[in-house]
Amino acid sequence: MPNPTDNPPLAGRRAQAARNDATILAAARAVFLDDPKAPIAAVAERAGVGISALYRRYAGKEDLLRTLCHDGLLRFVAAAEEAAAEPDDWAAFAGFLERVVDADVHSLTVHLAGTFTPTEEMGRAAVRANELVDGLVGRARRSGRLRPDAVTQDVGLLLEGCAAIRVPDPDRTRELRRRHLAVLLAGLAAGGPALPGPPPAAGELDWRWRATGK
Amino acid sequence: MPNPTDNPPLAGRRAQAARNDATILAAARAVFLDDPKAPIAAVAERAGVGISALYRRYAGKEDLLRTLCHDGLLRFVAAAEEAAAEPDDWAAFAGFLERVVDADVHSLTVHLAGTFTPTEEMGRAAVRANELVDGLVGRARRSGRLRPDAVTQDVGLLLEGCAAIRVPDPDRTRELRRRHLAVLLAGLAAGGPALPGPPPAAGELDWRWRATGK
DNA sequence: TTCAGAACGGAATGCTTCGTTCCGTTTGAC
DNA sequence: GTCAAACGGAACGAAGCATTCCGTTCTGAA
C-alpha cells in the first residue's frame, strides 16, 4: 500500500502499476462515497482502468471495501492528532470536527460498515480514534467552553448528522456541512439549557460494526 | 385512502379488506423507513398478508412508494399546522421540529425521493409545506429568539441531520434525535457568532426530486 | 342452501444487476 | 528476441426482485 504522495518519476509498466494503486483507491473512495452500493465496475471505470486491474490488487469487493475503510480510519486518526496539536482547547475541538467533516471521512466509514468483516488492526485503530476524540472532548470541557453535559459520543451523532447533508456539487456540500457544523458548535458551547434524555453511551453507536448482515 | 383512525366494528371479508388498507400502508412505512430499497415482499410479510393483497391495491412498487410519500408529506403539513397553533413563536418553531423528528416523516420523504415520479398534487403539498415552514421561521426570527442569519432552508439541513441518526432500537433512536435536536436548537438561538458560507438557497435541497435516475 | 366472485396466499416466471473468472493482447525488462 | 507482469473487457453464473398466475377460501346475496 504505497504512500499516495509518492511521485515516482519512473516510466514504464512498473511505475504505471504503482501509480494505479493510488488511482484505484482514490476512485473507489469517490465512487463509494457517492453510492455505498455501487458496483465494482463503476470503480474501474472511474479509475480509467479495466476490471482485472482491480482484481489483481484486491481479492474481491469485500477486500477493497475493507482497505478503503481502514484507510478512512487512519485519516480520521490523523485528523484527530493534527487537531490535538492546537494549543487552544476549543480550537482543537472545533478544528478536529472541521477536518473530519471536510475530508468526508465519517460518511465513508459509516456507510461501509457491515459490508465486510473488520480486521483486528482496524479494531485497534478504532480504539485509538476513540481515545483521541475523548481527549479532545475532555480538553474542551475542562476549558469551560464546551457545555458540561456533552459527552464524547455526542461527537458521533454530530458527525453522522453532518455527513447526511449532501447536494450534487461536492464543494457546495462542504459549505453546507460547514454551516450546519457552525450551528452545532454554537449549540455545544457552554451556557445552553440541559440536554434531554440519557446521553449516548459508549458503544451505542457502534452497532453497524457488529454484524455483517445487511 | 381510508382514514387510519377508522375503526369499523364490521366483521367479514369486506371489513378485513378495509383494515388491510391501513395495515399495509403502515407496514410499508415501517419497512421502507428501515430500508428504502427493501423488496415489496418484505412489506407483505410485515403486514402479514400475501403479495397479491398488495398488488390488488397498488399498480406496482412505484405506486406504493408514491402513495407512501404523499402520505408523509401530508403528515408533515399537519405537523406544521398543529405547531403553528402554538401562541409562543419560539415554542411553535421548536415544537414543529420535535413533531417532525419524532414522527420520522422527513427521512421517509427524503430517502424515497427519486424512486417515483411525483404527482402534481404532491407538488402543491410540497409548496404548502414550504410556506408553513417559512411562516414558522419568520415568526421565530421576528420574536428575536431565532438567530437572524438562519434561513428557512436551514431547517432542511437540520431535519436531514436528525434523520441520519439511527440505532437499532426505534425508541432510543427517537431519544438520541431529540438530544441532537436540542443541541441544534441551542445553536439556532440568537446570540451566537455568524454562520459561515452563503446560506442554503430555496430549491437547493430539492435536487432529489428533480430526476428519477439514481 | 347455493353460488358468483371478491380477496387472498404464495409459487412460478422472467428480467436485471453484479461479482468473479477467463482469455487474448500489450509492453517493459533482461 | 523472449518472457511474463499488467491489462482490457467479454462471458459466465448466481442472486435478488418486481410482477404475474392460479388454485383456494369465504362473504353476501339470491
From TrEMBL, chains A, B:
Residues 18-76 form the HTH tetR-type domain. Residues 39-58 bind DNA. One of its GO terms (molecular function) is transcription cis-regulatory region binding. Keywords: DNA-binding, Transcription, Transcription regulation. The keyword tRNA processing does not apply. Coiled coil: none annotated. This is Transcriptional regulator, TetR family.
